[in-house]
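Question thread 4412

I'm putting together a teaching handout and wanted feedback from people who do this every day. The idea is simple: show students a protein as raw sequence, then show them the C-alpha cells that encode its fold, then repeat with a second protein so they can compare. Below is the first pair exactly as I plan to print it.
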Amino acid sequence: MSRLAPPTDRAITPCHETRLSVPGMRCAGCISKLETGLAGEPGIASARVDFSAKQVRIAHVPELKLPDLIAALDRLGFDAQALAVETAEDPEHKQLIRALGVAGFAAMNIMLLSVSVWSGAVGGSRDLFHWLSAAIAIPTVAYAGRPFFASAWGALRRGRTNMDVPI
C-alpha cells in the first residue's frame, strides 16, 4: 500500500479563503516572507501572493477571523487591510504621483543648472551651481523618498528587513 502524502501533525483542512490587500509588498523577498511565514502560522494551510495586485490569498480554518489574519501579517512585518476596490482616490496613489512629479520637476531643474558646469564654468560660479543643485536635491530626496523611508522604518521597527532598508 503506497501513500500519496505522508501524514503530518499540521494537517489543516481549510474551509475558508480570505484575500487581503498588502500595499507594503515590494519585492520577491516580501513574497517569500509572506508565503512561508503565513504557512507556518497555526490554522493557516497556505498563502499565495499576487504581487501585481499586491494581494495575498490565505486558505485557513474557519475559526480564524479577519483580525487574526491581519495580526499574523503584522507579526511578519506587513500592514494589511481587508480587500477593497482601489480607485484613483486612494491616498497612497495620490502621494506616489505627487512624489514622482516633485522628483521629475527637481531633476529637470538640476539638469538645467548643470549645463553651465558642462559648458566650462569655473571657480565661484561652478561652486554656486553645485550648491544650488544640492539645495534643490536634498529636500527633493527627503520628500519624494518618504514612501521608501516609511517602508524601511516600518520593517526595522518590527525587527525585519525589506528592499527599502538599504536606501
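The second pair follows. I'd like the answer to focus on this one:
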Amino acid sequence: MMDNDISSRWHRFLGSRREWLRSIGGAALGVSVSGWFDALAAKAATDKRRKRSCILLWMSGGPSQTDTFDLKAGHANGGPFKPIQTPVPGLEICEHMPRLAKMGDHLTLIRSMSTKEGDHSRATYLLRTGYTPGGPVAYPALGALVGKSLGEETAELPNCVSIGAMTFLSPAAFGPGFLGPRHAPLVVGGGRAVFQQAQGNNYEQQLKVPNLTLAKDVERAQADARLSLLSDMEQGFGESHPGHAPQSHVSAYRQADRLMRSSATAAFELGGEPDYLRDAYGRNTFGQGCMLARRLIERGVPFVEVSFNGLPESNVFGWDTHQNNFDALKKMLPVLDAAWATLLEDLKNRGLLDSTMVVWMGEFGRTPKINSNQGRDHFPTAWSTVLAGGGITGGQVVGRSSEDGMTVADRPVSVPDLLGTMVLSLGLDPMEQNMSNVGRPIRLIDPNAKPLRECLV
C-alpha cells in the first residue's frame, strides 16, 4: 500500500468515525473507543508545549548493518542485496525496505557505531543503560530514565511500556535499576509470549495486558474493601520497616489499581483501529506492537519500546543470523519495512512525529565477512543505528565505515554518544542526576559522552 494512499484513507476514516461516534451517543462502546479523546489528542498533538516522547524499535540479536543501512554493493562482503535510493541524494538503504526508503528525509543513519561488547547479554545491557555490566551500581534502562523524567506519577497509563521484550538474555537491561520498581516498565507480550511465536503468530493474545479486570466473582465493593485492608496492613508494616522496598510495593499496587479503574486501558484494545491500517502495519506481533506503541504515545506515554524477536517460521534466533542470513532477512525485512514505515506515516498524519523520536537499534551489528554457513556473526566494531522524528534532523548520514565495512573510517560513535543524543532530543538534561543504590548520584548519561549535535533540530 502506498504511503499517500494510507494518508488519504486515514483522513476518510476520521470523518466516518466521527459520524459513527455521533450516532452511538453516550453508549458504552463510545467510551471504549474514546470519542472524546480524538479532539483532546488532536489538540495535544499540535500543542507546542507537548512533551516529547520516544519509541524504541529494539532488534533482538543484533541486525546486520551490511544488509540494511550500510550496504557494500560490489564488494565481496556485500552479499546479494542491492541498495535503493531515498528522496535524499546519496542516502541509500536496502532494496527490501522500499516503503521506508520513501521516508528517507525523516531518517538519520548512524553508520559508525563502535563498541567492544560482542556478547549478547553484555552488549544488550550496554546499549540499553549506557554502561557495561558489573560492579555494585544497578543502572536503569533508558526507558525507566525517560519515563521518570518525562512522566507523571499520577498518570493513568504507565510512563514506560515494553512490548514483546525478550528479557532472558539480559534481564537487568530491561529493568528500572536503582530507580526502583515504581519506574519499572509495564511489559506487554513479553516473557513466555515471545516463545509462543515459535508455535504460531497469535499476536492478538500476545498483546493483551492480563488482569486488567476484576476476577469473575469479585464485585467492585469487595475489591475496594480488600484494598483498604491491604492499605492498612502496608501502612503498619511500612511504619515498622521503613525503606525503599515497602514503598515500592505500595506504589506498584496503587498504580495497578489506578490502571484497572481507568478508561485509558482502551489504548490496549486494537480492534478499534480500521482494518486497512492494521493491514498496513502488518498482521503480526511486531506490526501490531508498533500500532499499539502509537496508541500509547497518543495518550501521553513518554516511552514505549517494541521488540522484533524474529518470525514464527524462521529458524534463526531473532536477528542473530549466524546461518542463512539472507534467507532469514528476506522474510524479516518486509515485516520491518511495513511496520516501521507505517508507524512514521501514522505519527506524521496525526501531528505526532515532530514530538516523537523513533529509534531503531540492536545490541551490535554483524560481521561484514560472510561465514561458511551463509551467515554473519557478532560484530561490535562498526555498525549502524537509525534515528527519526521529534528532535532529530532527518535526511542525513552520520559517520562512515570503511570500504569493506570492517572498521569505522569517520566519526566513531560510542553508546554514551548515542544515548546522549537521544536524551537531548527529548528535551532532557543529560547532567540531571538520580540517587543510585550505592548512595551516589548518577547522571542520566555518562559525562564523557559527546552527543551528535548535527543530528539535533
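Top answer:
Good format. For the second protein you could add a caption like this: The radius of gyration is 22 Å. The chain has a mean pLDDT of 84.
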